[in-house]
Amino acid sequence: MSDRTFLGSSGRKYKGSDLIGQVWDSSRQNSLGPNREEARRNAVADVPNG
């Protein structure tokens, strides 16, 4: 998707790398920051205790 061009409702063209980059950077920041421990706990909780 980052290699594509997106077309806005006004007809304006947006670089895929600009749009996807913003989403990726925000998600990565959250996964490595304040949400990391919570996400780890949730993932571990989903694994059966065998």
Helix and strand arrangement:
Layout: E1 5-7, E2 13-15, H1 16-32, H2 36-46
Antiparallel strand pairs: 1-2
Give the overall pLDDT as a whole number.
Answer: 84
SS-based class:
alpha+beta
Main sheet attributes: strand count, strand direction, barrel closure: 2 strands, antiparallel
Strand tally is: 2
Kindly provide the radius of gyration, computed on alpha-carbon positions and rounded to a whole number of angstroms: 17 Å
Poorly predicted regions are: none
- What is the string of helix and strand elements? EEHH
**Portion in helices:** 55-70%
Give the count of structural domains.
Answer: 1
- Shape estimate: elongated
End-to-end Cα distance, whole Å, is 39 Å
How many helical elements?
2
Main-sheet strand order equals 1-2
- What fraction strand? 5-15%
